[in-house]
């Protein structure tokens, strides 16, 4: 293992085994369960990876090892050991490392990298070597078309996600609160997919899209785009954004003095640091799926454990699904062991109860969780839509920027 891998393991997993566990192995402790993955600690994907997955991987490893290890059917408990590295937000780097994990390291289980593009890149590797891969940060309609039978997506995909925003906007237009929509999307697989879902759904809902702009991944200035959308007279900003450009768009919206009735941004809106950076981000909407008030067993306990370990809150979307993916793997290993084919069979047939609610996979897609829209309201990211999952009602028009 290179020094970089050792440093990253210690940083993300708290040294999942720990010094005591490593010493214990010399005195007959069971062989560890090796779990391999990459995450971006540098590059444009590092913000999302460092908030959504790294803290949850570390929390889960600490909890499992604190219980004496991962319960493996027929073997008792075995400690979890991570084999990981920084993929530097580079697809080629991630693919090479996943190949190595499967062929040289021969890890027992795989966890995914962060982001749609990264997951798509490594899914064929997992498929080739028969490793179930549960992706809590992959959003793409193409999952239904591609032949990756070992890949499982936990989040609501683009169509149901955009159905949720279209449903909410249609209701708001019917109430006379909005009229004209402007869209900006990142020119990356994630943004393109969401836009391709949004455009026909907004049209079907009879909503007026007055301007659409795309921008490159890693953009440094969105003010020209925002000025153009403002000049078009839009009272809805629909930003299909990654965390860095999400933050950029919000800060620059204030700079160009644009405060539309609905300000919606994508990945990162549900991050607590986004709320804190923008003084509560009161009234900002985004993709949602979870908060600590949802009525699922273990949800509040998970929230409290995350805060205790990391001194920061989990995000209000994919964090809970990242932890849920680990709960699912843990249950599978307890019931069928480390036989990956049998793990896959269980993933294909069982509905799992998790901190993110019930999760049932059909052809690799979670069909139990609908697309959702949330909004920051007095410090919490309330779920607005669909109404059956709502924890709050929409505040429109959005309050003035703080």
What CATH architecture of the largest domain do you see?
A: 3-Layer(aba) Sandwich
> What percentage of the residues does DSSP assign to strands (E)?
15-25%
Question: How many domain modules?
Answer: 2
List how many beta strands DSSP finds: 17
For the sheet with most strands, the description reads: 7 strands, mixed
How many helix segments?
14
The level of helicity is 40-55%
Radius of gyration: 21 Å
Spatial shape = globular
CATH domain topology of the largest domain: Rossmann fold
CATH class of the largest domain: Alpha Beta
Distance between the termini: 48 Å
Compact summary:
The chain has 402 residues and is an alpha/beta fold. The protein contains 14 helices and 17 strands. Helix 11 (272-277) links the parallel strand 11 (262-265) and strand 12 (285-288).
Descriptive notes:
The protein is α/β, with parallel strands linked by helices. It folds into two domains: 3-156 and 295-366, 3-Layer(aba) Sandwich (Rossmann fold), CATH 3.40.50.2300; 158-291 and 371-389, Response regulator (Rossmann fold, 3-Layer(aba) Sandwich). The chain has 14 helices and 17 strands. The protein has a seven-stranded mixed beta sheet, with helices on both faces. Strands 4-1-5 form a three-stranded parallel beta sheet, with helices on both faces. Helix 11 (272-277) links the parallel strand 11 and strand 12 (285-288). Helix 5 (91-105) packs parallel to helix 6, helix 7 crosses helix 8 and helix 13 (318-336) crosses helix 14. The radius of gyration is 21 Å and the shape is globular. The N and C termini lie far apart (48 Å). Mean pLDDT is 92; it is low at 1-26.
């Amino acid at each position: 293992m290179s020094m970089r891998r050792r440093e990253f393991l210690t940083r993300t997993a708290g040294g999942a085994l720990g010094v005591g566990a490593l010493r214990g192995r010399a005195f007959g402790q069971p062989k560890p369960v090796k779990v391999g993955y990459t995450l971006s600690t540098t590059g444009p994907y590092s913000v999302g990876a460092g908030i959504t997955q790294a803290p949850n991987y570390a929390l889960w490893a600490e909890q499992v090892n604190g219980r004496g290890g991962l319960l493996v059917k027929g073997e008792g408990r075995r400690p979890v050991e991570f084999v990981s590295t920084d993929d530097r937000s580079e697809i080629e780097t991630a693919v090479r490392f996943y190949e190595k994990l499967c062929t040289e390291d021969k890890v027992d289980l795989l966890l995914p990298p962060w982001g749609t593009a990264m997951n798509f890149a490594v899914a064929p590797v997992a498929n080739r070597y028969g490793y179930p891969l549960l992706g809590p940060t992959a959003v793409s309609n193409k999952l239904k078309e591609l032949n990756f039978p070992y890949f499982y997506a936990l989040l609501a995909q683009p169509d149901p996600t955009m159905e949720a925003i279209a449903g909410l906007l249609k209701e708001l237009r019917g109430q006379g609160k909005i009229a004209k929509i402007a869209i900006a999307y990142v020119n990356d697989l994630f943004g393109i997919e969401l836009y391709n879902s949004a455009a026909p759904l907004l049209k079907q809902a009879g909503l007026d899209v007055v301007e659409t702009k795309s921008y490159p991944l890693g953009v440094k200035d969105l003010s020209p785009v925002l000025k153009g959308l403002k000049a078009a007279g839009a009272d809805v900003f629909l930003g299909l954004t990654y965390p860095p450009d999400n933050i950029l768009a919000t800060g620059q919206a204030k700079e160009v003095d644009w405060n539309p009735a609905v300000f919606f941004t994508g990945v990162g809106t549900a991050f607590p640091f986004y709320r804190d950076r923008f003084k509560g981000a009161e009234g900002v909407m985004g993709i949602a799926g979870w908060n600590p008030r949802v009525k699922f067993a273990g949800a509040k306990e998970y929230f409290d454990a995350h805060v205790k370990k990391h001194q920061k809150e989990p995000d209000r979307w994919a964090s809970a699904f990242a932890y849920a993916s680990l709960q699912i793997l843990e249950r599978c290993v307890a019931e069928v062991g480390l036989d990956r084919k049998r793990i896959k069979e269980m993933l294909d047939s069982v509905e799992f109860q998790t901190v993110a609610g019930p999760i049932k996979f059909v052809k690799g897609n979670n069909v139990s969780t609908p697309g959702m829209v949330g909004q920051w309201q007095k410090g919490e990211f309330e779920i607005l839509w669909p109404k059956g999952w709502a924890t709050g009602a929409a505040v429109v028009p959005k309050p003035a920027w703080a």
